[in-house]
Amino acid sequence: MRTRRFLVLITAVAALAMAVLMLTGCGGATDVQPPQVLSGSTEPSATRTAPVGEPVRLTVPSVQVDAVVRPIVDDSGEIDPPTEDDAWWWTERGTPGSADTVYLAGHAIHNGDGVFAPLQRVEPGAQIQLDTTAGSRTYRVDATATYDKWNLDRYDEVWQAVPGRLILVTCFVVDGQPTDENYLVYASLVD
C-alpha cells in the first residue's frame, strides 16, 4: 500500500513538473537581440509577381556587385556558401516568381573580399537586377538590417513568405573585423 502511494505521488509530481515546463517553455533562452534596421523599412511593400524562373545572375550596379548565382541545397537551416565569388540561391526557399521570399547568400570577408562585401554600402532605393531562366527582374532596395547570426532563424520578419521579395544575406563586417551578425538587404520586385 505504501509503494502504491509513493508511485501516485511520484506520478503527480512528474505531471506537475511537465505542466510547468509546458506553460513556461523549455526551449532555452528566448531573449534574442532585436535587429538593427540600418536604413529603410523591413515591412513588406506592395507585392508584384513575375513568371517563375531560377536565378542565374545578380547585379547591384550602385555598389558594383556582379555575380553568377548558383543553387545551394541545405536543409539544416544554415547557409555557408562554398565559394567567395558567387551568390548562392537557397533552393529550399522561394524561386523568383513564386509566392515565397527569394534568398541569396554570399560572402563578405574581413579583408574586403567576398562577392557581397560591397553590399554594406547599398542604400534604400538602389536597384538590383536578377536574371532568371524566365527573364530579368528588377528589384528596389527597401531596407538594410543586421541580425544576430546565431539566431537568424528566430526572426519572423526575415522568414515571412512575401511574393516579389528578395533578401540578400551576408556576414556583417565592421572596420575589417568579422562580427556575430548577418547583414541583410531587403528588396521588392518593381519590374
UniProtKB/TrEMBL annotation:
Q: InterPro entries of this UniProt entry?
A: Sortase, Sortase_dom-sf, Sortase_F
Keyword presence, Metal-binding: no
Q: Which keywords appear in this protein's UniProt record, sorted alphabetically?
A: Hydrolase, Signal
Signal peptide start-end: 1-29
Q: Does the keyword Signal apply?
A: yes
| Organism domain of life | Bacteria
GO molecular function ontology, one term from the record: hydrolase activity
- Active-site residues from the entry: 107, 171
The name on file for this protein is: Sortase
Q: In which organism is this protein found?
A: Gordonia mangrovi
